[in-house]
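Translate structure to sequence.
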């Protein structure tokens, strides 16, 4: 069949998507021996969700961590991940992540403009589990990167979605350590941190190598010759076919399926109503992999994130825009309640773990017990802290309800009033006592981390605070996600497996387009990009060093 195809373009390696996993795959395939590599990107911009993100990478045992004097051990890493994803870890892919993750970080440092540093005190997300690093070390942050280096291509990077000032690294932004003069200098040189820095630097590496990015090419169908994947058919902006031959192989790195309602309903363990990723992530890679006979895994899981509908259409199409809601709920003086007015979770817990509480099913009422749910704050909070896009003390944004009393607020929002007043009274009692007996909020370093907790207080009051100064406010929250976490299962070489466990020749995958290699474990800040870039790198190395039929 492949012999009949009239190709529009030919390359050794074709990478689908241009997020972190894809860019890393393209660069490493080139560096390890592939003659020509091409990237097909559905949108008109580079970077996908990665460019919008915090850009952190969770890679235990990386050289920046070791140089910062924070040791690690295989036993600890395995114990920690196994405690977060019991029975889900495949020893081969886990081993590849542990060995080649640090190798990938070294490669990026040596061969590309990517500059990372250990965010030394950023705690692992479940610091109370065995093998965790409660005082951090495994999460990597990006140095600020000057977009001047990209020249005319700077405008082609997808914008950020992070609420932090962008001129420094995340560490600099959160600690406010940059003085005015440095900030002005950074502004002048168009320095950007976080996911912008990561994608900017990876994109520079792509440009340096002369790897073309074919924009507005939506990959739709894999071409096979017998068992082997030999190319891909994409759809261009005019709906015409664009056929690209892949002499060595195709890497699916098209992100998750969170914006595809049919796939979300078919696979996820509960409702996903507010994805915060790029709207192009509609699961095209998953559909192509299914068509090619791929084995699927981890389909029920997403990288859960609490979000808020901002109502505004997203920049490139008419899809709604959902704001990230991780920090607001963890600050002192905020709680989350369900329609019964009850708290249901430690509000300072990490977003991925919390997402599983959000989609809990109540067999008694036969409903999702915690959907919908609301953030509740008071005037003291509103005057002091930012709430999503709304700075302290600013007018009430469209997504926020206000009322003089908790009873009125409950009536406006559709929450049980008795439940809400009783819950707030109970919460205030626990705050006064100094311990959250109901959900243990504030018991660990993650809950009290200064990025969301208020560093002006000591633990547990960095996250625990009274709600007692009206007017009161409610914000309806969505069951959101950074992306989905299921897809084609891959092996230690990032090759896609069929249902018999055999590699499908010529087909590779990385990032959120795959069955997450660490199952539902989200080890710490960078829990999706760490494995995503690692397996992008592994796919690139394998494609660079292996000719077809090897
Ligand atoms: C605000 C925010 C902060 C975050 N912070 C972090 C963090 O600090 N660390 C972390 O680990 N995770 C973070 N995440 C999550 C992280 O950004 C994503 O999990 C990660 O970027 C996914 O990378 P990816 O390469 O798999 O996909 P993406 O970066 O989403 O890229 C997928 C690309 O594929 C393209 N595409 C889709 N379909 C097709 C098609 N058919 N053909 C061609 N191209 C296609 C898309 O347009 C997109 O460019 C954050 C997310 C958000 C929104």
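Result:
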């Amino acid at each position: 069949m492949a012999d009949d195809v009239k190709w529009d373009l030919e390359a050794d390696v074709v990478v689908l998507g241009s997020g972190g996993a894809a860019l890393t795959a393209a660069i490493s395939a080139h560096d390890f021996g592939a003659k020509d590599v091409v990237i097909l990107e559905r949108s008109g911009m580079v970077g996908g969700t990665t460019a919008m993100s915090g850009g952190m990478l969770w890679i235990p045992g990386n050289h920046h961590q070791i140089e910062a004097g924070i040791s690690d051990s295989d036993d600890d890493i395995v114990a920690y991940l196994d405690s977060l994803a019991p029975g889900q870890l495949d020893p081969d892919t886990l081993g590849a992540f542990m060995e080649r993750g640090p190798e990938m970080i070294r490669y990026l440092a040596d061969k590309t403009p990517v500059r990372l540093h250990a965010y030394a005190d950023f705690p692992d997300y479940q610091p109370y589990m065995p093998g965790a690093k409660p005082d951090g070390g495994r999460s990597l942050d990006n140095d600020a990167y000057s977009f001047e280096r990209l020249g005319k291509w700077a405008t082609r990077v997808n914008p950020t979605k992070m609420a932090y000032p962008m001129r420094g690294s995340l560490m600099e932004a959160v600690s406010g350590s940059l003085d005015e003069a440095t900030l002005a200098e950074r502004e002048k040189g168009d320095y950007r941190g976080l996911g912008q820095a990561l994608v900017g630097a990876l994109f520079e590496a792509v440009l340096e190598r002369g790897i073309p990015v074919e924009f507005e090419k939506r990959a739709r169908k894999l071409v096979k010759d017998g068992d082997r994947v030999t190319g891909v058919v994409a759809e261009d902006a005019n709906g015409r076919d664009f056929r690209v031959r892949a002499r060595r192989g195709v890497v699916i790195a098209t992100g998750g399926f969170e914006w595809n309602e049919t796939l979300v309903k078919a696979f996820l363990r509960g409702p996903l109503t507010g994805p915060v990723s790029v709207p192009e992530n509609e699961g095209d890679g998953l559909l192509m992999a299914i068509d090619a006979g791929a084995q699927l895994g981890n389909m029920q899981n997403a990288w859960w994130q609490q979000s808020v509908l901002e109502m505004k259409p997203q920049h490139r199409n008419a899809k709604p825009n959902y704001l990230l809601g991780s920090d607001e709920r963890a600050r002192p003086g905020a709680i989350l309640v369900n329609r019964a007015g009850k708290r249901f979770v430690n509000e300072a817990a990490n977003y991925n773990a919390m997402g599983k509480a959000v989609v809990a099913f109540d067999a008694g009422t036969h409903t999702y017990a915690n959907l919908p749910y609301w953030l509740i704050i008071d005037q003291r909070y509103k005057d002091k802290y930012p709430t999503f896009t709304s700075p302290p003390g600013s007018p009430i944004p469209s997504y926020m309800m206000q009322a003089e009393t908790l009873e009125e607020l409950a009536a406006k929002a559709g929450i049980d009033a008795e439940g809400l007043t009783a819950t707030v009274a109970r919460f205030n009692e626990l705050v006064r006592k100094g311990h959250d007996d109901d959900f243990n909020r504030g018991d660990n370093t993650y809950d009290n981390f200064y990025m969301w907790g208020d560093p002006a207080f000591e633990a547990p009051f960095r996250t625990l605070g009274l709600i007692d100064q009206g007017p009161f406010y409610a914000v309806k929250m969505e069951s959101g996600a950074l992306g989905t976490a299921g897809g084609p299962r891959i092996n230690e070489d990032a090759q896609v497996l069929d249902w018999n466990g055999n590699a499908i020749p010529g087909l590779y995958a990385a990032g959120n387009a795959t069955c997450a290699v660490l199952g539902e474990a989200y080890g710490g800040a960078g829990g999706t990009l760490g494995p995503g870039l690692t397996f992008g790198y592994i796919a690139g190395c394998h494609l660079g060093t292996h000719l077809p039929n090897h």
